[in-house]
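Entry for the shared binder. Reason: the reviewer on the internal report wants the predicted structure included alongside the sequence.
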Amino acid sequence: MKHPLVPIAIIAAVSLAGMIAGLAGDGWEDRAAALGLIVSLAPILWALRRAKI
């Protein structure tokens, strides 16, 4: 059985990668940072919509 915190760990890893990419430089790194942070919000918004909160 999969551990229940695995999805949260994945979201945290994507967010961390996005933040590190944003600090790494300008240009494509900023776009990668924005994408990483937006992608990490998608499952949270999906769960809130599914829970109808």
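Summary line for the report: Helices lie at 6-24, 28-51.
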